[in-house]
Amino acid sequence: MGHEGLHEKLSTLGKVLALERRLGFRDEAVLGGLEGFIDRLTRELPEPWAGTLRALASAYAQKTPEERRHVVDRLEALLSKGQGRGEDEREQGRSASTVPEPELPEEDPLERPVRFAKGVGAGRARLLRKLGIETVGDLLFYLPRRLEDRRLTKKIGQLRPGEKATVIGRVRAVDVIRPRKALEIVKAAVQDNTGVLFASWFNQPWLLRQLRVGQRIALWGQAERAYGTVQMTNPVWEPLDAEADDGGRWLTGRVVPVYPATQGLTPAQLWRLIRENLALYGPQIPELLPEAVRRRRGLLPRREALKRIHVPDSPEDFERARRTLAFEELFLFQIGVALERRHAQKRKAPVLAVPDDELERFLEALPFTLTGAQRRALDEIRRDLASGHPMNRLLQGDVGSGKTVVAAGAAFIAIKAGHQAALMAPTEILARQHFERLRALFEPLGVRVLLLVGGLTPAQRVEAKRAIGAGLAQLVVGTHALITEDVSFRRLGLAIIDEQHRFGVIQRAKLEEKGGRAPVHVLVMSATPIPRTVTLTLYGQFDVSILDELPFKKDIRTYWVSEDRRDEVYRLVADEVKQRGVQAYVVLPLIEESEELDLKAAVQVKEELEATAFRGLRVGLLHGRMRDEEKRRVMGQIQNKELDVLVSTSIIEVGIDVPDASIMVIEHADRFGLSQLHQLRGRIGRQGQRALCFALASPKTEDGRRRLEAFRDLSDGFAIAEEDLKIRGPGELLGTAQHGLDTTFKVADLIRDLPLMKAAREEAFRLLEEDPDTPLIKEFQRRFGDKFELARV
What we know:
The protein is of the alpha/beta class. About 45% of the residues lie in helices and about 15% in strands.
């Protein structure tokens, strides 16, 4: 086989590998799997190519996704080297019939599967995979969650009750007691020259073999006094190798990093594995940040930072290392933001414009006047649509700030410019609500609005798809049914996505692809306020419009009431419903572990209230496990005022809009996040009427108390978002459930590191200007790749 034939075969393999990567290394790129495909392909290839490719793909189906990624990386590197060398030879005029030798790329030791790391093996590799650790590199970059300062060392006689300290002494006696079945307590008496301390460990019988009388050990834990003796329960301990006080000590008398662990692998075992492999592989960790950036920003070399974060001498040492690694992470992320900016400026999109008088006619037809903020947002959207580049705008606003009307204005512009518009909502109930509102707005203007959701009959669905494909439906409202393969638009110009954080990246991309070859303008609506500081920095390539004024002033009074006053609250709610004729919601938190328990709790609360405080009232139940038609029936009842009270666990998910609802009771309010509580409260008082919200909770933690105080005292969504960030604090970022922000950053923290984020942004944009093809682009793609969209939306 000549060079041309080889080139063709390798090119085919390259396409298969690219598809396998896109599909997430599931071994589904070709029928019969990748190994079978390579086996068939190599029958026509010369050696040593055939043997090399077969060896690399061997047992591909049995490997984990991470191990498969490693195989695909090596195969792609091999192809790129082989094809590159072939091109070089042809340019140099050498015979094209000469087949280049396969040149295996050097294996990156950090990319080796973790089972080959020192001290790991197959069993531990399974445990490490539960923590997301697939490779040696993942192990080295698995960072501590916090630091524990165990430096305070005291004599036993100096210990005060409640104090955490390290003590050093000799084991004088060891025993085990079994006060009842399934409970074993190992007790040790440890003595120094000031007294005796009694240490107890529960259900750790192996300690009986490890603790030896006469052995010198160090212990760290909380001292207590009981029965006239000094005691520690379940202290951390370690034997001392030498007579010196610091002989071989890792767990006591120093600053100790604490790692998120898993059953079968303790934080201490994890730390030892990381230390041993850091010593082995540390010298092979590549430097990523350009030297000039490191100098300008006062950062450590990467290897040094990793060493200091895992084995810190002091909290200050740890923080400097954390800062360096956080900067690196933010810097790579911002390279992606800069790339997207550059890419967006090059892309062309249809120009969607309408004359001023036509838009004014639409606005005059509205049953209300737009607020200043709504007008400003619509002007910004209008400029984007007419720019000739794809719009990528985030429309943020508190519950009730009027985002839907702004989106309707955008749809009107697209439709009048001869294109279709689509609005995708996360649930069928929300899609139907949008449909009803938008139909009322648009049909008097001669615009056909169509609903496409899973609940349509087959005949309705066929007719809807025909109307969309023919361009007869100008505005299509739906759920994920909009993005199924058999739905095709004639001329989609604008995609509006409501509550983006409930959609995966792939779903959003599929809706954008419905525009065919021409890029679609995208407007994303979010009712979850994100602090301005974070928005400006993180949503780099998004343009952001903020609706920061409400069409009317809401009059909602919020009360935080302890759970022992529950009956009193429900009596007051019943009186309000009976006397004022208003409607009320009772919201229960989801029990994530079990839908069965959820349903049971909801049914129990409904029945209990019907038999007590709400006797004589019409009480309904809405629950996540109900079928869509059941949900629609209950929704219809509450909207038609056939129910007085609705007990629900999924109210926040479906986005209920009942104008008359004026009272809400949130059970176990401490189980909700602050932003979630605020979203819930936004469901009452929607016409400006006086409304009451009761948060029932007796929180056990300081964070829980702070959340409820903020909920009671603050009503502005953006102020709440800022407070939420402060309470949730370092490491938690914005939290997937609350804000839809993937936990993109392992080290960086969006409150503490905002100045760092801004510095990283400056440096990333500067680097891309100076070196548009920097090799760091590849590292950005490796690190953030598929997560990138989700991180910003």
